């Protein structure tokens, strides 16, 4: 099964007709939430999101930045174990509603393939328990010659879902597209765009480059290539969550819908505020 969605729902208000999650869920069955990356969210947020979406809707939740080595400075928890405990606890409403597709651990460009970081991944997987967790690298060393197969075998043994990327090939701070499913049930595919000049922000003195990093519109030829890739991946995994993250220029939603059309996929969720006939009789 192929499930399509976007990174965030407010970026695309002009395209899908509103910035509410309930309005977004009419168009796509999954969404990636980034707010959890910047701060461990209160449970009430997840409870609200669960209530605003159809029963079969799913969330890809990004791991808190303190858990992936992105955080500058100290995290606001007693220790690392407490940080993981707080993060996992916050997800309770999504878990109870069966709407947590996976937690995405996206590691930074300086997270190299070495023994220390392999141990960090094992620690993380142990702390996350039985929750579905996806792994995305940003340092090319994990897929270098001689390491690619070892990395994939490690992910398979440890139970990591592979987050397969389509992104610019910008040296060590990017990874190639590796079309290999490491989990029999779930695979994640993320479209970051191919804006090579805007990817690393080299030579920029401020953070404005982040606004254009994901500025990219996939061509129909590029999407046709991915149609073939996704059909091939389906042979190795039951469900593939496809997230478009090329959102700087509002290209994510149109690209997602274009690829859905190429694959013959139609989705129409419940309209916002729609009352279920049988629920109204209870």
CATH homologous superfamily - what is it? Answer: Protein of unknown function UPF0759
| N- to C-terminal distance | 33 Å
| Outline | globular
Helix count equals 12
The total strand number stands at 8
Assigned CATH class: Alpha Beta
Characterize the main sheet: 8 strands, parallel, barrel
Low-confidence stretches: 274-282
Proportion of helical residues = 25-40%
Structural class: alpha/beta
Measured by DSSP, the beta-strand proportion falls in 15-25%
How many domain modules? 1
Order of strands in the sheet with the most strands? 1-2-3-4-5-6-7-8
Order of helices and strands: EHHEHHEHHEHEHEEHHHEH
InterPro entries: DUF72, UPF0759_sf
Organism: Tumebacillus algifaecis
Protein name: DUF72 domain-containing protein
Pfam families: DUF72
Task: Briefly say what this structure is.
The protein is α/β, with parallel strands linked by helices. It has one domain (2-281): Alpha-Beta Barrel (TIM Barrel).
Structure report:
The chain is an alpha/beta fold and 282 residues long. The protein has a single domain (2-281), classed as TIM Barrel. The protein is built from 12 helices and 8 strands. Strands 1-2-3-4-5-6-7-8 form an 8-stranded parallel beta barrel. Strand 4 (100-106), helix 7 and strand 5 (133-136) form a beta-alpha-beta unit. Helix 11 crosses helix 12 (252-262). The longest helix is centred in the middle third of the chain and has 14 residues, at 115-128. The radius of gyration is 19 Å and the shape is globular. The two termini are 33 Å apart. Residues 274-282 have low confidence and may be disordered.
């Amino acid at each position: 099964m192929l499930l399509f969605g976007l990174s965030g729902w407010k970026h695309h208000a002009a395209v899908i007709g509103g910035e509410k999650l309930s309005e977004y869920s009419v168009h796509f069955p999954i969404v990636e939430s980034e707010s959890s990356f910047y701060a461990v969210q209160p449970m009430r947020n997840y409870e609200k999101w669960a209530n605003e979406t159809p029963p079969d809707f799913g969330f890809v939740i990004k791991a808190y930045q303190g858990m992936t080595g992105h955080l500058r400075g100290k995290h606001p928890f007693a220790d690392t174990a407490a940080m993981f405990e707080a993060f996992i606890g916050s997800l309770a409403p999504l878990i109870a509603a069966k709407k947590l597709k996976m937690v995405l651990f996206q590691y930074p460009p300086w997270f190299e393939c070495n023994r220390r970081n392999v141990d960090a991944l094992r620690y993380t997987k142990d702390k996350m328990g039985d929750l579905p967790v996806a792994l995305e690298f940003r340092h090319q060393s994990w897929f270098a010659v001689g390491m690619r197969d070892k990395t994939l075998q490690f992910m398979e043994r440890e139970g990591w879902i592979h987050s397969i990327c389509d992104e610019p090939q910008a040296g060590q701070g990017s990874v190639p597209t590796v079309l290999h499913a490491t989990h029999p049930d779930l695979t994640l595919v993320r479209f970051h765009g191919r804006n090579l000049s805007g990817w690393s922000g080299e030579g920029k003195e401020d953070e404005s480059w982040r606004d254009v990093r994901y500025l990219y519109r996939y061509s129909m030829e590029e999407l046709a290539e991915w149609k073939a890739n996704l059909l091939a991946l389906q042979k190795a995994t039951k469900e593939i969550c496809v997230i478009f993250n090329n959102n700087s220029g509002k290209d994510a939603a149109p690209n997602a819908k274009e690829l859905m059309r190429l694959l013959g996929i139609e989705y129409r969720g419940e309209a916002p505020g729609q009352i279920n006939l049988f629920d109204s009789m209870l």
